[in-house]
């Protein structure tokens, strides 16, 4: 199987359920919405060591936001148990505190039939000076603050989505692989309902579950895919001629969104000179309920 | 007291001790060091609701990094108890995972006599394939990963620094105050050893300790400084003609760094048209051991 | 007439014909397409003193570019006589020289029935080593260069479009007006087939034709709209309470595109706190054949 | 000769005299100074097809600008004959028109003994409403404009500097060469008194003087260095294993500045994985009076 001359492994990505909320941040300009979004989605690469996985989904045009200002949609992904706390803290500490922001539930814009609603009562911050209002048919709280006023919804939809959709970008040189991964992240940013939660959207240190040597850690380097260990480990999966491998990890609101993102991302990576091969990560299919076969993901492009 | 025609209140900022570590992230280009730094310092505005306060301190030229690559220094500020966990998680999940990064202790570059050292043993991720090396006289671990190799020190200095240095930028309009605050943040970015941990460096929702109405929350809106409440609360401190107030909060490695940052920031804000007044926040001096009198902070400029 | 509480003058913008070409630049990543686009559209604010008016129109998704890579569309606007030279020099010196770029005619993507075609023969640069190819049904030249290969079409459509569509953003303070202008530019960036050619999309120095005092210059400050001259000139048009005025100048492929851009831009500006009034610039209707009445432009929003 | 394990050719860069002016742009924030600088230095890669070579030199801290606001220094490089026109047009159309800018001569900050002064009389734009003032001992004109007021010096130093300092970054893959070139540009941005005028600082299409086949063009592809022609041309200079070559072209105020920039840039490029070799371009030494031997340039690093 080849795409744009790049071999594609006949394998699949294995993914897991995760709870997902989608928050629309609006502000006076795109730049200020972006700054709040960056702060709110930081320290959120992997649920293993971070309190959540989070990232920027996409820009939302002023035509499509409840208050007619430019917006950015973010996804926050975590366990159902932690979601309320994560929404309260990330919105309360990173968005309510940011200049000119307002906040709205954005999940129904991308998926139908959201039933679960998480209460996020930030209006207590108003110390009694807050008041209820309505914006475009939504109930919001307006909270006086030193800047003027914060406006926000206090109920956010949540659904069981998909975490850990992924593919590997392998390169003849490290920089070829890195630029291939960057091109993939660019392309995925155009797909609605997904994030690539790692730094700059890219994982440089794809891992395996557990450790052979250090039993006390939950994940460790995936030595079979480490180029510098190609001659040192048995059963290395680093193809000849590959000197670096990046993983793109994708979380999304549902399987369709993750599949689209994988397709767009892989296609983009294969256009970059020096990208040598595409593969994907799985654990033998025993762990995650979602399987994304690369041949299915790419069927419209092959 | 006036600076560039802007009245300065004769008051002081009250600040508190916090533990501070400083991490230098290097990467193949400035951009990739920056992307890792942004992820590692996100969700870190206020120790009240975030696991730490963190931010970007400054660029570090390749001439001044241990591995001769471009770097960015970040500060991580939290309690002594939480520091180890925060260093492990933020470096482990947000920097080790990022493309082309290496990590070095950067505290001794800005303060002398650092005694406290925090162990940050990430080399277990290498699952036995890791090895010790030396770079510019520093002991580092090289950990094989899918990208190639991560290199990092595993001991980071920590000192008791200063959190909550601050000043208020008051504007004739909200946008004047916002641009004044932005100019202040720009100027502070040139001061070494400090961060402005809030989104884009700016606090739009300066708070008071506790709440009069909702006893269960640790902080609430500072109604005395809320422009929309000027005629609704007794003792409003919003000056006539002021329509918005932003707070710049500064954490730093020591009092000198915070004082310099306050001076540079205030001076910059007063150059912006429509900035109407500068003040600072304190709690009557009963809580924090550090006082930054604006007249001292600005003595070289007045 | 009011929009979002901001008074709108019942006036019109007067605009002029200009020749317009639209060039799609693709590259390995969005960032590299953007860098080439920025260079190619610089020094191009006003046909009075610059060799052309030029700017970035919009991103073009990899799905919509001939070579399946991410792209950016730019407009180059000048007289019919100068267009060939400007295309040759701006593409030849600023895009062909840039890393990983390819170039395609992008005019037919936004307007139908383009008849005029401008030859842009850059393949001579190949010194005989160049060769013709086809990409997605388009004839291109592939030129060997030190980086590898440049690929480009050599015929670009041109049409008589519209220059000088405009509106004024007036603010209670300079920073309110500036942020209002910024919000307008953000919104206009989402409209296809238009550019805002001035720095950052904003004109700080709106001018009148000619000069009363210095007969040798083609344009001079529009003193009737200068806030600092409100009490010094007769017939000042600066409304009470207005302290700064920015002009947004729009060039586009046709009247519809310019009208849409004016509507989106004005609407966005009126959402910014401290924006006091919106107006537009004209010369009494004697000069330009195009009139954009604000009440027509905004009829869907009022 | 090797640096960081990368072979360095024992050759030299040949460079030429060019006239250089240095303009400091200040604005309300760094961002607005930057936007004006980008517009003013666009369409300025090569004196062959552009009206000038221009670029951003460096940030100038508010401590070091005449008006105490953040600034950016740009270089404009052209023939002595064209300099006046280029200064008038680039400052007049791209900086005076930009929000909140002021302009100052910045050449004396980096070189001593500047004798040549170019008059740049923009105050005529004020149509008689302009007035002379003094800022930090400099004579400036304040010109009323719709935004408020533009302030600028009207005499700019010019010196005979150096154009065409250069080196080649050769890569095992195109992306390795590109990232090596990017790292070089990052490093050079820290050197005062130089620019890299091409798009993003990088030349993808290094050229030779004239053409063998098309006598009517002034420059054509340097086929000896084209990787795709390695087996098609006699005397190819593309080393085995090299698949892409980028050239970094440097203009500067004097030989020292260009030499420093070459050293910093080469050193940075050699730190990037997959950079295979460094060389430099010359024409046999018959044309340009300046020679930069790589072994001299790098003598502090080897």
TrEMBL record, chains A, B, C, D:
<dbReference type="InterPro" id="IPR022667">
    <property type="entry name" value="ForMFR_H4MPT_ForTrfase_N"/>
</dbReference>
<feature type="domain" description="Formylmethanofuran: tetrahydromethanopterin formyltransferase Ftr C-terminal">
    <location>
        <begin position="148"/>
        <end position="297"/>
    </location>
</feature>
<comment type="similarity">
    <text>Belongs to the FTR family.</text>
</comment>
<dbReference type="GO" id="GO:0006730">
    <property type="term" value="P:one-carbon metabolic process"/>
</dbReference>
<dbReference type="InterPro" id="IPR023447">
    <property type="entry name" value="ForMFR_H4MPT_ForTrfase_fd-like"/>
</dbReference>
<protein>
    <submittedName>
        <fullName>Formylmethanofuran--tetrahydromethanopterin n-formyltransferase</fullName>
        <ecNumber>2.3.1.101</ecNumber>
    </submittedName>
</protein>
<dbReference type="GO" id="GO:0030270">
    <property type="term" value="F:formylmethanofuran-tetrahydromethanopterin N-formyltransferase activity"/>
</dbReference>
<keyword id="KW-0808">Transferase</keyword>
<dbReference type="Pfam" id="PF01913">
    <property type="entry name" value="FTR"/>
</dbReference>
<dbReference type="InterPro" id="IPR014053">
    <property type="entry name" value="ForMFR_H4MPT_ForTrfase"/>
</dbReference>
<feature type="domain" description="Formylmethanofuran: tetrahydromethanopterin formyltransferase Ftr N-terminal">
    <location>
        <begin position="1"/>
        <end position="144"/>
    </location>
</feature>
<keyword id="KW-0012">Acyltransferase</keyword>
<dbReference type="Pfam" id="PF02741">
    <property type="entry name" value="FTR_C"/>
</dbReference>
<dbReference type="InterPro" id="IPR002770">
    <property type="entry name" value="ForMFR_H4MPT_ForTrfase_C"/>
</dbReference>
